[in-house]
Amino acid sequence: MLIHNNKIILHACCAVCATYPIELLKKEGYYPIIYFDNSNIYPYEEYEIRKNELVNYCKKYNIEYYQNKYDNENWENFVKGLENEPEKGLRCQKCFYYRLKNTANFAIDKKIKFFTTTLTISPHKRSLDIFKAGKKVQNEFENKIEFLKFDFKKQNGYLISTKNAKLEGFYRQNYCGCKYSIR
User: Fold this and answer.
1) For residue 151, is it within any domain?
2) pTM
């Protein structure tokens, strides 16, 4: 299997959260490839807005972009029974795992050894939970793929990302994405 050593699949939840991680990964010597896998987002119109913002950003800066099909029903079934969990609870942990496993599958299909996620940029998410999900996925794939732990909120990452979003004129959502986070 041919491995592209400097390529990394970057799971992205939206354009706002992707700007700084893309910059940082490039500074670190990686070639980030964006992967949009967010079947958790509800309603579908919200999903489309976030996807289109990210597509346009990637086109503007010539960043490779891919996406998984939207399947909110499958995601709902995956987190069934955790609907009343609070933000940062078990539902979120399961959601991280779901999207990172899809990202790892995509990376393996593309013969790319590394993957990570923009999810750690959010001050509303615990990076350790995301790292745990990424490591679990890595272990399930018997280390054929490596999850790289980037805590993008460090070194003012969130602040830089929000400034970038303002400069780009991005739509900024006011909830994480799933219908349970709207409350």
Assistant:
1) yes
2) 0.95
